[in-house]
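Notebook entry, structure prediction.
Reason for the run: the old model in the group folder had no record of what sequence produced it. Starting over properly, with the input documented here first.
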Amino acid sequence: MKKLLITVFVVLGLVSNLSAKLIQHTDQIAEIEFTGSAYELGLYTGEVAKKQILESIKRFDNILGVMLPGLSTDKLAKKFKEKKVFEKIQKTSPYGSAYISGLAKALDKDINILLAVAMSDEAILESQANGGIGFLQTETQNNLRSPAKCSVMGISDKKGKAWAGANFDYMGINYTGLIVLNHTDKKGEKRVILTWAGLIPYGGISVGGQAILMNTMADEGTAREKAKGEIIADDATPSFYLSWEAYGIHQPKEIIDIFKKYKHYTAFFSYTIVDSELPVLTIENNYGGKIHYGEGDYKVHTNHSLYNSYKFMDDNFGAHTLTRYKIAEKFMKKANMHTSEKEVRNLLESKPLWKGRGELMGTVTSTYYKIDGKQIDMYVKTDASHPSVHIKNYK
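New structure, fully documented this time:
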């Protein structure tokens, strides 16, 4: 294993008088510590991680052609431009639109190309809807048509202690090029966002000091597909809004207002919000414009709605999402504040929750969150040959 422990300080002409640092934890995970605006963060990220981001975009473009012959970032970008997706993002997502604008400038890339990658769920749904590889295939042993699977869980004693665990399981191209944005904005508020290539957020820490566990719901996308619903519909808010604005919450219930602000979305997400002083909250947007959420001492979520049931759902659907939920739920019923990271990791890194790394889809990271008040330590692991990377929201 090639392990890089390089810390780079850069002051750019575009981004002057700002605190900026790139930490290459391993050859798979880099962390950007940055103080400044979201736009300036995008500029800096694009400058210091330009090579790996452009290589990641190229890998993404190649994999689209494997998933569905003829599908490409250019083709998606053209559709995004026609549907004025970025204009919608500018109206809905101040943080996300500013960040990706800075990133596009630094990379000298059409912003619609970046969005075609950043809104990767839409790309998978486009593939699935046209007969290509999508979310609903039955899983076999790491073959090309095995879908991604994500499993998350969190618990709080509501007295200042909590912990959470999350598997991010996605395309094989995501195994490298992971960038953690450790961003302090001009208000002094800190977000920590786990991303692939600085483009796809998949969890992290909010400005309010909550662990944010993100998931995709394969059943809701499949329900829309079977109803012949349009993905990039004119009345649909881009999922980019949900991807980036979630990290700006100060209290868990603010996520409800974010989800309810718009009725229709281009993709279907769930967030599990873990606060050490409050019940764990899980929320999801569903096909048909409904928003469902619930609270509890603990919560579990996999790749299906906790509130809807569909006839096409069986034990094989979504890489055994129903089975994964049952196993994680059974574990959490017995869990408490004394449950160790080792016990949580043993669950996250065992089948059926842990898939391993296949040619097209597999487990990208498993992350353990230790929460003490508003201070959160994240321990991010990629695979057995790489060490766990420690990232936190405090000095």
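Summary: Residues 6-381 form a domain with the Penicillin V Acylase; Chain A fold (CATH 3.60.60.10).
The old model has been moved to the deprecated folder.
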